[in-house]
Amino acid sequence: MKPFGVVLILLLSVLLGCSTVKKTKSDDIYKKYIKEQKLEKSARITAFRFHGWNSLNREYLIVSTSFNKPYLLTLNTPCNDLPFAHRIVIDNDGSSLDAGFDSIVVPDSIAGKCRIKSIYKLTKEQADELTALKP
Question: 133 and 120 in contact (C-beta within 8 Å)?
Answer without folding.
Answer: no
